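Dear colleague,

As promised, here are the two records you asked about, laid out in our usual form so they can be pasted straight into your sheet.

NAME FIELD: protein one
SEQUENCE, THEN STRUCTURE:
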Amino acid sequence: MQIMKNTEKTTENEVRSKAEVLQALEPLVENLTEAHKQKRRLWMPNDFLPADEQMDSDQHDRQERLREQAKAIPDSERVALAMNLLTEEGLPHFHRLIAYHLGDSKPWQDWNFLWTAEEDRHGSLLRDYARESRLFEFGSVDQMQYNYQEAGFTPEWENDPYRLFVYTTLQERATQVSHRNTGKKVADVEPQLDGILKKIAAEEARHYSFYRGVFQGILEIDPNRALASALKILPAIDMPGLSMPNFREMSEVIRRREIYTPWDYKAIVEEAIRFWKVDVLTGLNEVGRAAQDKIMAIPKRLERIAEYIESRTKPRTFSFDFTYNRVIGMGDPV
């Protein structure tokens, strides 16, 4: 790939537009998509929760056992599962964002269609599980899902496709961590849910690999603008469920339960910075060098934020309609 090395007097837009960079990346996208398909073992929600008209006795027994086992899932973990479910069902927002920023060129469109088809099963499977196990007061979950879809998700990315790839890298990894940690918390009481969340988390990990690989390609071609775009996203990402009812309270329960915390986000950012080798990038202009320095300082800032949040944590109770307003008492993170 040709590396864009700009002089201090030449603007990036005069050299090549970001759309042209995306066009130059199409062979990489095709390779990453094919590599993803080679690693994939396609599954369907019905593989985990059969709902056929004709089921054998073993399937019926498993259905009954599921409902009994699910009764032991603590309400804090139910909150995490509700958040995971609703986040996955925000898929239309992300299909739109990817289509808008990447256009209809075949390699990008092929990936977006494939990714959307895979992600759609995540929400379907979690919804099937929650309904089958009678885990929630489901009318409340339906209302939250509707409100979230109606509110939309419109991050201020200033038509910058580079930011999309930084965001999706971080978000896919965060989603993987949240699913996996929720599964670990319930494994002893409900191993079937743990298995479901492991399967979803593994797929999120493969999506994460795709997006961070694409951004690596952008860095190789257009490092200065890529770093400037990354600097806009890395300090803090707007979680996709931000417009979801009860989002902040649910996030607080999840943090205190150590399912997803500011420490996890710090680790995700550090991992991305290492993979992209931000610290050793050379040949940068003034804008690129300034962004590089600021990016390398972000983990320390995130550490201070995590420590501050922990220091301010006091015992608190929570309740949610979808868990029948049962009181969830929480002190320090456990």
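NAME FIELD: protein two
SEQUENCE, THEN STRUCTURE:
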Amino acid sequence: MRLKEFLKDRLLFILWNALIAAFSAVLFFVVDAKVFFVLFVPCLYILGCAAVLAVEFIRKNSYYKKLYYNLDELDRKCLLSEIIEEPNFYEGKMLYDILKTSNKAMNDEIAGHSRSSAEYREYIEMWVHEVKTPIAGAKLIGENNGNDALLEALERIDKYVEQALFYSRSNTVEKDFIIRKTDLKEMVAATLRKNAKHIIGSKVNIELTDIDGMVYTDAKWVDFILWQLLDNAIKYESKNIKIYSEQNQNNITLFICDDGIGIQASELGRIFDKGFTGENGRRYAKSTGIGLYLCKKLCLKLGLNITVRSTQNEGTTFEIVFPKSEMHGI
């Protein structure tokens, strides 16, 4: 609170009391009072009014100054009403009650949305599990009839259904992961075995070299991340994919390099944004802009770091940094 603005806000009070003081001086002069009364009484009245304004300014300035300080210190500004102290002046008490009421209404609304979101997520998870049964049945029919085109289409559907499941759980990863000491090479190999049919059908050559070391992570979630990156490489015309690792003092970096069409330099900073498909995504209709977004989000949840380097028409390299210690701040 600034003194100038405070006085401006109290301008009517100041003018009115100045008018009263002037009227008193004139009245004393008219009744032929002594000069002492003509000057002393109005001045005493003005000093009294000034003292009242000074006390009011000091009290309010101290409160609002502290309020602004607390607001600046808070990371989540909406929590201000939770730490605000009730003031000892009427206007402040009104503001205090308004903030408390507003905060309660906001919390009630957020709780309602949270419940709706949780119910929707539960429905999606249930739907995913239910729909996998007819997909598995259709795959069996396709295998019995030797229909490779049908099997490939069903495999793609199954992957998108799985993506929907991981997307629905991405905000609550911490409730569904188990951090274990895991062999990095075995984890990569498991992903390749799981998707061997698609890899063979795509006629892409995958080379594994120097993948060694134990890392602390959740293999199920990492399997999803690895396949998203490999599937992207295959989708964008890669013929050769090289996967290797590099040992560091506190972590292991896994490199996934392809020789596909690459990514424009101007788009590299946005490829992890939700829904971003870029020029390549517009050329390839199957792109949704969700896969890499989920990879980034899940890596953050798992305490991993993912980065990308790419040269257009030459290829792309993704790097995932895994911690060697279980104390990695998830």
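A couple of things worth noting about protein two: DSSP finds eleven helices and seven strands in the chain. The mean pLDDT is 84.

Best,
R.
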